Write the structure tokens for this entry.
Amino acid sequence: MNFKSVAWVLALLVAGLAFFLAATVAWIAGLAWVLALLGAVWGVFLLAQLKRWVPLRDVAWAANVGIGISVIRWFDLPAGSVSGLARLALFGAGAMCLVFFALIGPGLLGWIAERLRPPPEPELPVEQPASPERLRRWDPKD
């Protein structure tokens, strides 16, 4: 692994942490702020997928995971009041939330981007270069 890839992984981790903190603050401000932040992240992801900007798509994915982790944070209940089965149910809900924000949500957005992308333009026919025989018969009189 070279330095550039390590730096990129660190940049994605920082982006995920920054959006985790932003989503946590948005949760405190209200549900509308969280939905606006999630809409902005999904909009950037969709735009990056449409334009095939891979670095921006990766940063938007990391931001999406950060928001998902902030959603999981709100599942927490006090440890003394949760029985074994309820704790297992909360763990499963957190795992499903993380799977949604890390895999299913970006997959659906990628599918939508593929449906929105215009079809590729057909290639124009290209005239074949003249063969030596044809050039000999043409024999320009310049």
